[in-house]
Structure formats: C-alpha cells, structure tokens
Amino acid sequence: MSGLANRPFLKMNGLGNEIVVLDLRGSSHRVTPAEARAIAAGRSSHFDQLMVLHDPLRHGSDAFMRIYNTDGSEAEACGNGTRCVAWTMLRDNARRSLRLETKVGLVECERKDDETFTVDMGTPRFAWREIPLAEEFVDTRRIELQIGPIDAPILHTPSAVNMGNPHAIFWVEDLEAIDLARTGPLLENHPIFPQRANISIARVMDRHHVRLRVWERGAGLTRACGSAACAAAVAGHRLELLERNTVVTLPGGDLCIEWRDGDDHVLMTGPVELEHEGIFAQSLFAATAEAPAMP
Q1: Segments in 13-90 forming alpha helices (H)
Q2: Given this structure, which CATH class describes domain 146-264?
Q3: Are 76 and 226 in contact (CB under 8 A)?
Q4: Residue 104: which pLDDT band, with cuts at 50, 70 and 90?
Q5: Residue 230 catalytic?
Q6: Which of 182, 227, 231, 283 could form an SS bridge with 167, CB 3.0 to 4.6 Å?
C-alpha cells in the first residue's frame, strides 16, 4: 500500500503551468518515481510539476522542497511551482515571506498580494561546466548547436544558462513557425546536454518584452515555465537584446523578471491559482511498484 493513499493535495497552476502541491511535513515518506508518474496520470491530479514539502533540514528555513516531473524524474527548480508552494504555506498566515530549501540551495519567496508572489531564483550560471555542457564553450551566450539542414537549420546557436536547472534558448523571428513538439524532445536529449535541458524558443518584441514557448525537461510542452522565463530574460540581456527588467509572455500569460544589478539575483513575479483540493485514492497507486526513491 502506498504511503500517499488518502493524503490531501492541492491542484494549482501558475499561468497554466499545472502544479500539484503535496505536504509531507511530519512524515518520513519519500515519493518514488512510480508514485509521481501515477499521480501525473490521475485525472484530477495531473501535473507538469509535483511540489513535495518535507520537514526543513536547517534552522531558519520553513520546509525542504522536492520537485518531480511527469516522468518521475526530479527537477532542481520550478519558479511557477514555488509560487504555488508560497501561496499554500502563507494563505492562512500573517507572514509575507518564507524560505524554502531545495537540492540546489535556498529559495526566498515574498507575497505581493493574495494571488501574486515573487520568487528569488538566485544567480544564473554561465560556465559550460556549470550548465552543464558536454564540451567546452568559452562563450555560452551562443553555442554551436543546430537542428535541421546544415545550410538552412530550423534552429541554431542557442544561449545556454543554468537557472538551477539547464536551459537552452533559441532566438527566432516567428514562434509559430517552429514545431516545438517535434524539435523539443530531440534537443532536450541532445548529447551536448549531459543532464538534458529545458528548450525554449524566444522572440524579442522590444527591450522590455520577450515572447517565449517552452519544451520542459521531463514534462514536455508547457503553458508556462518560470525558470525558462528567467533564463530567457538573463540570456537576452547578455546578448544586449533586453534590459534587466523584462516582461516574459508565455502561452499562459506574463511573468515579470528582474535581473537585479549588484547581487545578480533573478526575481520572478507572477500569479497563482487554486483549481481544487483533493485526496489521493489508494486505487491511483494500485499498479505502482515501490521503486527506490531518487537520491
């Protein structure tokens, strides 16, 4: 019997990015990849990311947060999901901020109003080993990668950034001309990305506005991806295409991104929405084998 049976969950979204929040504080249970896939397959619990809260490991933080993709793999960062977690933890609380632990460090969140939150996504990393890439590139503002015919590639020379997870951003003139459902899986799993990568196509509208579509690592096409929005805003500024304050428009709506001067932290501000509350039925996990949890 799964330790998740009869546990409550919240189904939320951040700009249409489907999020399930599961609070396991006070429990020793760790979600297995098979359990994550089972939850994603549920009609009422389908997610792009599953945000799981555990007891904090260090003094001064409010919870330890694990993030799962629909394929059961773990992600290092999810900005839209983190906003949903902030709403969950602060909705009946007079506090306006909290601190969450993740596999890659601390994340600070601040409530702006009842449905709008800012997440400090930390500092971007640009060195090829930090992204990581499988081979050395001195300048990751544009790396040598293309898909399609050599003389007329469909996509080429993306920017590479790590925003807690690896991202590649291809700069295009026409977002709708790219079949991201076909090219996304090929690029996500390209050998140049040893940990796979989130793949974005971006069109600069002006120096304070960029439009974005995202193929999310381990999840597929998504209506919104907070870390991808941050990566695109940062990469665009490095290419002198965008200012440090940028509106990123995704299929699900707008995120406001600030790459703060001085400490280089990236702040992401956007809305959240509660869709419904539910309880996991035991039948949801009937076909799952208790596979070992990921380290």
Answers
A1: 33-41, 79-90
A2: alpha beta
A3: no
A4: confident
A5: no
A6: 231
Q: CB–CB of 132/166 below 8 Å?
A: yes
Counting DSSP H helices and E strands in the chain, the numbers are: 4, 19
| CA–CA gap between residue 149 and residue 183 (Å, rounded) | 13
Residue 225 bears catalytic tag = yes
Q: What share of the chain is helix, strand, coil (3-state, %, to 5)?
A: 15, 35, 45
| Percent of residues, the chain, with pLDDT higher than 90 | 89
CB under 8 Å to 190, separation ≥6 — which residues?
145, 197
Q: Which CATH class is domain 8-120+273-285?
A: alpha beta
Q: Quote the CA–CA distance of 210 and 229 in Å, as a whole number.
A: 9
- Annotated catalytic residue, options 78, 84, 109, 230: 78
Q: Which of 109, 225, 230, 256 is catalytic?
A: 225
70-98 average pLDDT score: 93
Asked whether residue 237 carries a pLDDT value surpassing 60, the answer given is yes
Q: Please name the residues in contact with 25: beta carbons below 8 A apart, sequence gap of 6 or more.
A: 53, 54, 55, 63
Residues 124 and 162: their CA atoms lie apart, in Å, by 6
HSE toward the beta carbon, residue 9, CA cutoff 13 A: 24
Structural domain boundaries of the chain? 8-120+273-285, 146-264
Check if the beta carbon of residue 166 is closer than 8 Å to that of residue 198.
Answer: yes
